[in-house]
Amino acid sequence: MADQTVGIVGAGIVGLAVGREITLRRPGTRVVVLEKEDEVALHQTGHNSGVVHAGIYYTPGSLKAELCTRGRLLLREYCAERGIAYDECGKLVVAVREDELGRLDNLESRARENGVPGLRRVDPAGIREIEPHAAGLAALHSPETAITDFPGVARAFAEDIRAGGGEVRTGFPVNRISRAGSGGRIRVVSGDRDVVVDQLIVCAGIQSDRVAKLAGDAAAPRIIPFRGEYMRVKPPKADLVRGMIYPVPDPRYPFLGVHFTRRVTGVVEVGPNAVLATAREGYRRTNFSIPDLLGIAAWPGTWHMARKHWRTGVKEVRGSLSKSRYMAEAMRYVPEIGAADVERAGAGVRAQALDRDGALVDDFRIHRLGPVTAVRNAPSPAATSSLAIAEYVVGEVFGK
Fold this sequence. Notes:
400 residues, FAD/NAD(P)-binding domain, six-stranded mixed beta sheet, 10 helices
């Protein structure tokens, strides 16, 4: 039906991409994006590293791998059309220890199966040719891994929605979702205001489980917040890094490890680490929420995860408290940048979905509840994949 109204909860990059896709694919449909903050893209979209991933890490054939590959191409084209900064400065994934070479082999096989463009393996001389101040035994070079301005992309998506006749309604925290009469429509309530829609799509990021629960969805997976803290390399040492320098990731974890990333602004950052946050929107160490902490403690998966990964957790906390410890790991990759060469920068919060048994959910989870579609997990590389995620979600809602 062309005269439908579709509501979207969440004006991060995924929610806005979905709204934009509906306005393009279904002209005449009224799109209303509902955002609790006064601006778009203030949470995960506005606190990420700005990296456009090429698909190195993801399980071949997975939805994550498929959407990343298509999403990168769509995003590159979109940024060119809209004049948004997009720099293919490239990435090195570097093995610095002998015991990492086998993992690098596996990563190379995975990346080639995913069709990562231009991928090549380099030796120590090749590493220095690409990044003259980096060190390592071997590396994978992904020349088309890029950096962009994701908040700028999100704002452009919002402009597209408005241009297509839709609305982005900020300052609208959703606190109730219910049926509107007997016709199958949905009422979305914020205090004394409401919006009635025919279809509702939940793209609420760090709050996705709570908003989905308002619509009657299951408790699992629960969102557990991890704060990722960054260091900023001070001039002139920032000139020692040309693009991105990453470690070989541990396949047991969804986190990529502390790495060097150049931003489109020219700033070079180190990070992020991954420490359990004391609030869902806890971008500072002083942010503290008793309800959020009680929710973390009450989830059985939290304790299963803690028993399995407590050593890693202790290591991350030590690095968070000590700049020297934080940089000791980073110096394996760029020995000339140490604790004296960096300053504390911002932080982001990762919405890590956790199943009841403690399993870290690593792929997309989308639940259908009649006229409500809940994106329960949209992990990294969600920003890279946002336009492809939008295609997928809209196809699920309205039929491919």
